[in-house]
Predict the 3D structure of the following.
Amino acid sequence: MTLKQLHSWEVTKETAIELQRELSKNIIKEDHVGQVNFIAGIDMAINESTSMGRAAVVLMTYPDLVIIEKHVYEAPLHIPYIPGLLSFREIPCMLGAFAKLKQRPDLLLVDGMGIAHPRGLGIASHLGLWLNIPTIGCGKSLLVGHYDSTQLKVQAGSWVPLIYKKQVIGTVVRTRTNVSPLFISLGHLISLQTSIDYVLLCSKGYRLPEPVRQADKLSKDNKYPLL
């Protein structure tokens, strides 16, 4: 699968921050999601001792969520973890995994933030711009913003807005009853409400939506061959 080169990954911290500010202006926050027949999840595992990244992408049919493709890709990580610049560390490896797909997904769920980011360009939004595919950020922990936890019910499907600088940047969504919520934000080419809808529709009794859950498992499965 051919990928468009948006920019170089060999950049300084200062250049990366400026790129985020500029690229965030290109994020489309309205629905450009057509009929969804194929949905993918992507995640990353890191071996800190070897500085290697292992990205995994899992493609499923929708709405029945049957796996039809899964791929892994390993590559060295060229920069250390820097808060707010995760995409520059992980996306090059993720692109390697995505390039192995034979079928292009109609929607991509990413383990990480979309616009719920200090400069409005988390890994899901950044990846969405590179791939020109509707993306949703599914974060497991809070990066930025605040929310009213007293208004978040314990039942699956409950959600409250995530606020940053007086703006709604995402939602805190309970995907499983009595389990810690996820931080959901739009990535690119999709609205926030549609992002919430798809995350809940892809939740099968687990905290993580199924495409991301399967990608998370695959990224940690060192026995899966690098085909």
In short: The longest helix spans residues 86-98. The chain has a mean pLDDT of 95.
